[in-house]
Amino acid sequence: MVLEIVTSVVLLVMGIAVLVMIHVCIVGRTFRMSQESIESGTVVHSSCTISEEDIKKLPWYDYNEDDDDDEKKRTVECTVCLEGFKVGDKCRLLPNCSHSFHANCIDSWLIKTAACPICRACVDLGTKLLEGK
Questions:
Q1: How confident is the model at residue 133 (pLDDT cuts 50, 70, 90)?
Q2: Where are the beta strands (DSSP E) in the chain?
Q3: Are residues 119 and 85 part of one domain?
Q4: Considering its fold, how many domains does the chain have in total?
Q5: Do the beta carbons of residue 117 and residue 79 sit within 8 Å?
Q6: How far apart are CA 16 and CA 10, in angstroms?
Q7: Domain that holds residue 122
């Protein structure tokens, strides 16, 4: 009887040890994968920045439902505030990806993170903004 209890306790301890080892392996692998993705650039780095002065230079337009421009018509709601565009709303068009947002919404977003909230592309004032001048 005592031998059976000792055997059961030993097996229980070994089972718990195996579960702990499996957990450590899974957590370790997940941690390594997240570190590798940060180092490889698959997430937005903090180096993606833009000044408030540069934000004001980004192209904007007044929303108009009858507008024939497919770039502006493609998005019918601001993904920052999740409200639909209304006629006369001041909207901003990001130069790299051509995603549209309410100007106030995207301006406050870009102050914190200079990346598009939809595709996570860094906002670049370079080529497309210069072409528009």
A1: very low
A2: 60-62, 90-93, 100-102
A3: yes
A4: 2
A5: yes
A6: 10
A7: 52-131
Tokens of 6: 């000792």
Structure tokens at 31: 């941690």
Contacts of 96 (CB under 8 A, 6+ apart): 116, 121, 122, 123, 124, 128
The span from the CA of 133 to the CA of 129, in Å, is 7
What average pLDDT does the chain have?
79
Cβ neighbours for 48, distance < 8 A, ≥ 6 positions apart:
113, 114, 115, 122, 123
Same domain for 79 and 35 = no
The pTM for the full model equals 0.54
CA dihedral 25, 46, 71, 91 (to 10 degrees): 130
Counting Cα atoms < 13 Å in the Cβ hemisphere of 109 gives: 20
Statement to judge: residues 71 and 124 lie in one domain: yes
Which residue did the predictor score with more confidence, 60 or 16? 16
**For 68-97, what is the mean pLDDT?**
77
